[in-house]
Design a protein that fits this description.
Layout: E1 20-25, H1 37-47, E2 51-56, E3 61-63, E4 72-82, E5 99-101, E6 105-108, E7 114-117, H2 125-139, E8 143-145, H3 148-153, E9 170-173, H4 176-186, E10 188-193, E11 203-206, H5 212-220, E12 227-231, E13 240-246, E14 249-250, E15 253-258, E16 273-278, H6 281-296, E17 301-307, E18 310-315, H7 322-329, H8 333-347
Parallel strand pairs: 1-2, 1-7, 7-8
Antiparallel strand pairs: 2-4, 3-4, 4-5, 4-6, 9-12, 10-11, 10-12, 13-14, 13-15, 13-17, 15-16, 17-18
Helix pairs in contact: 1-8
Length: 348
């Protein structure tokens, strides 16, 4: 077991040269700097001597080569200077004074040593387009984490189907009859859309719930959209655990997101409270099997969601909880991630 605040030796910084890192993030004023893992990563990168740029995902584009003009993927980016934000800010306080941004300029992505894709879902057509463009940048030699193809190939809900021996009873379908049968069979279930985040549109449906029909109709959009049903796992009362994998290895602490009174969802965005714990033997068993597989596919950072002994989601787009783990244990997962980026850049 790693000691509190320690960084495993195999992921220590490689003594690499300063890097130019571009972070594809949501608009900076929208980030909750005092708890945002993307901000923690940028702060860790700057603290380790790297140049940090914010890339506006909405400006990603591609242009073919023309006479006198090189082609490729480009975007608007701004150099940042950072400070650690208050935690949390007072009510109505301005939480935007955590950075100073230089002028936004059009830059080819080949200018960066690495690009970190941290755009939050929804995984809509614009997100999909961003992965296509980032893959073109990757083909030009840009290192992109997580790899664009891996982002497309790993639906955060559906990806668990590859590891059914770790999951609770699960059904993915758009057919009401199958969903009704699943609810009757398991008596107490969770229904959720495949493209949700932060606990949005998650319903707990018991077999005697008078609203079960309308919930199924609403979530499936009258049978036009597939959803996920899972057997309700009572251990949610002890928290929905977020386990972070960095370069295939688990961070030694997870964050158990505990539902507030009267709630089923543990998501922090839904009002849950986060309590950091050391990983259990079962947590380590799941991480040991999934970590090397997912890392080999180009997923440098993954967030596994585990309730009790069951894997419920595999988060790859923008995993969080780094700040809460650091605040409660002293373990700096953001610095560990940047060390992994350094190592990947050094060996590429």
């Amino acid at each position: 077991m790693a000691s509190k605040g320690a960084v495993p030796g195999e992921l220590q910084a490689s003594g690499s040269r300063p890097l130019k890192l571009g972070f594809v993030v949501d608009p900076l004023p929208e980030l909750k700097a005092w708890k945002d893992s993307s901000v923690a990563m940028m702060q860790a990168a700057e603290a380790r001597g790297h140049q940090v740029f914010a890339i506006d995902c909405a400006t990603l584009g591609w242009r073919g080569a023309e006479t006198g003009r090189s082609g490729g993927v480009y975007a608007m980016a701004a150099r940042l200077q950072l400070r650690r934000a208050a935690s949390p800010p007072a009510e109505h306080a301005d939480d935007r004074d955590w950075y100073r941004a230089g002028d936004r300029t059009w830059m080819p992505l080949t200018d960066f040593d690495a690009v970190i894709m941290r755009k939050d879902p929804p995984f809509d057509f614009e997100y999909l387009t961003a992965t296509w463009l980032l893959e073109r940048a990757e083909a030009s030699g840009v290192r992109v984490f997580n790899r664009p193809r891996a982002l497309r190939d790993h639906s955060e809900k559906v990806a668990i189907c590859e590891f059914p021996h770790f999951t609770p009873a699960t059904l993915i379908t758009r057919h009401a009859t199958q969903l009704q049968q699943f609810i009757d069979e398991h008596a107490d279930t969770i229904l959720k859309p495949l493209d949700g985040m932060g606990g949005s549109q998650i319903f707990r449906i018991r077999h005697d719930d008078p609203n079960r029909n309308v919930v199924i109709e609403t979530l499936t959009r009258e049978g036009r959209r597939s959803i996920m049903a899972q057997r309700f796992v009572a251990e949610i009362a002890a928290g929905d655990k977020r386990i972070l994998l960095i370069a295939g290895q688990p961070v030694p602490y997870c964050l158990a997101r505990i539902p507030k009174a009267g709630e089923t969802r543990g998501n922090l965005a839904a009002g849950g409270s986060g309590v950091a714990h050391e990983l259990s033997p079962r947590d380590r068993e799941i991480a040991a099997e999934l970590g090397p597989i997912l890392f080999e596919r180009g997923l440098l950072l993954v967030g596994l969601d585990v309730i009790g002994s069951h894997l419920t989601e595999i988060n790859v787009t923008s995993p969080t909880c780094m700040v809460e783990i650091r605040q409660q244990t002293g373990f700096d997962a953001a610095a560990l991630f940047i060390a992994a980026v350094e190592r990947e850049c050094a060996i590429s």
